[in-house]
Write a structure and sequence with these properties.
alpha+beta; about 45% helix; seven-stranded antiparallel beta sheet; 10 helices
Length: about 325
């Protein structure tokens, strides 16, 4: 029997001290390192229970760092379980014994249950799952695996969305992406009061759930790059502009957006020769700044993936 008066107090695992600005306060630790685990109400109770335990493992990694990796491992196994449970709910029969995970993923992919635009994305998740299930050595990554946990949650929630709406979103989004790619990052944005030259534009997310579609759209206008940033290779973030469109029209050579107040944006290619020459000179300077700092990964609000940000809000509707 343990004498409670002499039992050691549980304290933060010293491994966490390698991270910058880590508070020893457990509440602050959880806010910083434990991702949000939101599951749609329709998600199977067994899947929900697994994620309850996963969250507990992540919270208790405060005391034992490697619990985080146990949480990531259980997440990858839960992904397969969630797929099998959803398959059974849809088809009234279990996924066949001996059938492979790759076949199960393909079944859902063919029926538009995954809103995935990177053709390697699902393959990568399956590969990571297999490596974790059949390790050759002991490894651990701690909170660096939090993105895996969140991506699996995204896929699980997507299993309970309308696949026909998902298909429509993807077709429309790919049409917009294809149009924008044709501008070769030499973009002209016509606003109500001003016109902007932009070096990047993209659809953040198309919300087609409900009576009115909403297109979350972003673009990066050219801007005055601080000379000291160019000479010292100073880290910096280029500005990003957000436009919430409640209607849109995809034309052959431009995209027309309108918000709920009636303001419009028209996005097309830079066609005037003097503007092209001036823009290309600017971009040469920007690329000296951009490549070393990785500015292209960020917006001024430090959003690293606008699609996932809006997708996760979409799943809560």
């Amino acid at each position: 029997m343990i004498n409670e008066s002499t039992a050691p107090l549980l304290t933060m695992d010293e491994t966490w001290t390698v991270f910058d600005n880590v508070s020893t306060d457990r509440g602050e630790f959880i806010k910083k390192f434990v991702p949000e685990i939101y599951l749609r109400p329709e998600v199977h109770s067994d899947t929900r229970e697994n994620f309850r335990l996963i969250r507990k493992l992540l919270e208790h990694s405060y005391f034992e760092y490697k619990f985080y990796d146990l949480g990531a491992l259980k997440t990858m196994f839960t992904m397969e379980m969630a797929l099998k449970l959803r398959y059974q709910e849809i088809n009234n029969e279990k996924w066949g014994e001996g059938k492979k995970l790759v076949q199960l993923i393909k079944w859902f992919e063919d029926r538009n249950y995954f809103e995935v635009y990177n053709p390697e994305y699902l393959k990568s998740l399956r590969t990571i799952r297999n490596v974790m299930a059949h390790p050759y050595e002991h490894t651990y990554s701690g909170p660096h695996s939090s993105y895996l946990i969140q991506h699996v949650i995204d896929l699980v929630n997507g299993l309970y969305e309308d696949p026909e709406l998902c298909k429509q979103r993807m077709v429309t989004t790919m049409s917009i992406i294809s149009l924008l790619e044709g501008f070769k990052e030499e973009i002209k944005v016509y606003g109500k009061d001003n016109t902007y030259l932009a070096h990047r534009a993209w659809p953040g997310f198309l919300n087609n759930k409900g009576c009115k579609e909403i297109l979350h759209f972003y673009y990066k206008p050219w801007y005055e790059i601080p000379k000291e940033d160019l000479t010292t290779n100073q880290w910096g973030l280029s500005p990003t502009v957000y436009f919430k469109a409640t209607s849109y029209t995809i034309n052959q050579d431009h995209l027309l957006l309108k918000d709920e107040s009636g303001d419009e944006l028209m996005i097309g290619a830079i066609t005037e020769q003097h503007e092209l020459e001036e823009f290309r000179r600017w971009r040469q300077e920007y690329e000296k700044f951009n490549q070393p700092t990785g500015d292209y990964l960020f917006t001024h609000t430090r959003i690293t993936d606008t699609f996932l940000m809006h997708l996760r809000e979409f799943h809560k509707i």
